[in-house]
Write a structure and sequence with these properties.
By secondary structure, the chain is mostly beta strands. Helix content is about 0%, strand content about 55%. The chain starts with a strand and ends with a strand.
Amino acid sequence: QVQLVESGGGLVQAGGSLRLSCACSGRTLSSYTMGWFRRAPGKEREFVASITWTSGRATYADSVQGRFTISRDYAKNTVYLQMNSLKPEDTAVYYCAARYSNFNYNYWGMGTQVTVSS
């Protein structure tokens, strides 16, 4: 089992920045891909970014490319999502997730709320 706990959400004005953290425990994360997803009110959950734990290869949704950066810290077993130039449409609950190899994401955190005011 992998346990994921998100933190770092909050209220920020448009144009501001936040850094989300996802503390991971329970299993060695080599061969895992870590992802960030979000769900805005009334919308489906959507992919934001992912990173392979070992190689650090990152992938981003078009909507956040160039504004968000995903990273991981081996020593702290933590994944981060640095969010810059935030927009009101980034308002959502952000979830950290993990998947083993090419399987589906099957470990999820409880989420952290991000609200961007205009």
